[in-house]
Structure to design on (448 residues):
């Protein structure tokens, strides 16, 4: 007679599980897990506007405005991506943020034509991404498992040097490679690995967050945390649309639109990496289409609010694979925290004060987990000579070309930027080879 009660209790347990994409876990568990996602991407998200503003010689007030916009827009985009808005959004645990991939193209535009021209080009790129997402069900054949799995491996592999740069103190740091940076990164890495492998329940799931917090406390105690940004920041400020301005120049639009279309491959790779690494399945057509459309329309929204193109953040794909927490509501809570950080600059200043070395200890394992998720995806394909050639040549282009700048030094800055990204030439190789190579191995004929 107790069977219905047992079934009901089991049902409730499943609904509240962090391992169910449509579950809403208890807030005591969901909030720290959501904040963990934000901490993993926060510095990367605000670094893009800092780099471009510095190159374009913007004032401190304009730079602060763009940093605030980057946080607010990423929060809105994450909510749309995870919760959905009609057909828009993958409704998966995907965190959105400002894309690093557009930086090499946007910097010369911002310097030569002005930041408003860069924002106008970014808006057009967002429209192009949204159109790709809309028609994705009809072009899904371009992205079979051998292509998307290779994408995910490329993403993880290309991010690994970035992880070590953070662990050493961050790009351009005066104390780059100093012992205290490496020791802080190692401390965080060991804590995360220990909790992840030997911890139970919430201790294992929040391993990256705990590692970050302990690393931050240790760094603060040793005097390596600068709280100046917190003291200088305002308590509350609303984002203002078109505060920087927006202009449209064909010379700026063309390279950004081309990059945006190819960047859709990265979005697809992240979506596939999320479902494969966290749920051990391929994404549905609706998830893929809605996810890419969310990237595009969020990028349009970003340009209006003085921010740059939005895309799913690969390090957060690594968190999903690392922790196994796939609840989209956990990520939505993180999106809410990002919006709050955009409205409360002091809160954003506190989080941005995390030393690069501390963050590096976290992202090292996350970037590696992204590549591992790609390998897991490829484990389900047939390793015949066709697929091995696709994988091999694509990885060679993605990793080898950016390492040899002399090969493409004579080309225009736009072409150089596309090649230097690594992901674009690698993605193009994978897509083209998948289309032109024969589907089956050719049999040898004895009568020839």
């Amino acid at each position: 007679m107790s069977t219905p009660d047992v079934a009901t209790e089991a049902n409730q347990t499943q609904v509240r599980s962090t391992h169910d994409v449509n579950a809403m876990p208890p807030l005591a568990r969901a909030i720290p897990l959501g904040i963990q996602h934000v901490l993993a991407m926060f510095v990367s998200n605000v670094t893009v506007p800092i780099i471009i503003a510095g190159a374009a010689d913007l004032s401190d007030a304009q730079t602060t405005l763009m940093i605030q916009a980057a946080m607010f827009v990423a929060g809105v985009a994450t909510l749309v991506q995870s919760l959905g808005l009609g057909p828009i959004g993958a409704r998966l645990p995907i965190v959105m943020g400002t894309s690093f991939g557009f930086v090499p193209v946007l910097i010369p535009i911002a310097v030569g034509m002005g930041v408003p021209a860069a924002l106008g080009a970014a808006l057009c790129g967002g429209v192009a991404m949204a159109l790709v997402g809309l028609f994705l069900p009809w072009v899904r054949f371009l992205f079979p498992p051998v292509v998307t799995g290779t994408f995910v491996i490329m993403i993880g592999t290309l991010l690994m040097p970035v992880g070590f740069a953070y662990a050493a103190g961050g790009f351009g740091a005066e104390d780059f490679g100093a012992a205290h940076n490496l020791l802080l990164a190692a401390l965080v890495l060991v804590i995360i690995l220990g909790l992840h492998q030997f911890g139970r329940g919430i201790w294992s799931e929040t391993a990256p967050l705990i590692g970050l917090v302990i690393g931050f406390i240790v760094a603060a105690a040793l005097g390596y945390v600068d709280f100046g940004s917190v003291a200088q920041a305002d308590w509350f400020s609303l984002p203002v649309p078109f505060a920087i301005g927006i202009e449209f120049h064909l010379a700026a639009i063309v390279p950004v639109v081309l990059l945006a279309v190819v960047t859709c491959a990265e979005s697809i790779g992240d979506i596939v990496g999320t479902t494969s690494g966290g749920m051990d399945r391929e994404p549905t057509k609706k998830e893929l289409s809605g996810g890419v459309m969310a990237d595009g329309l969020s990028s349009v929204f970003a340009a209006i609010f003085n921010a740059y193109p939005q895309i799913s953040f690969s390090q957060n794909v690594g968190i999903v694979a690392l922790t196994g927490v796939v609840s989209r509501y956990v990520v939505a809570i993180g999106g809410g925290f990002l919006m709050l950080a955009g409205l409360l600059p002091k809160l954003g200043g506190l989080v941005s004060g995390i030393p690069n070395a501390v963050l590096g200890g976290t992202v090292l394992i996350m970037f590696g987990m992204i590549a591992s998720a790609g390998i897991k995806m490829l484990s389900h394909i047939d390793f015949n000579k066709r697929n091995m050639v696709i994988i091999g040549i694509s990885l060679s282009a993605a990793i080898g070309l950016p390492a040899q700048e002399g090969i493409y030094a004579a080309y225009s800055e736009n072409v150089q930027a596309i090649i230097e990204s690594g992901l674009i030439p690698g993605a193009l190789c994978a897509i083209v080879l998948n289309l032109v190579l024969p589907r089956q191995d050719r049999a040898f004929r004895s009568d020839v």
The two ends are 75 Å apart (CA to CA).
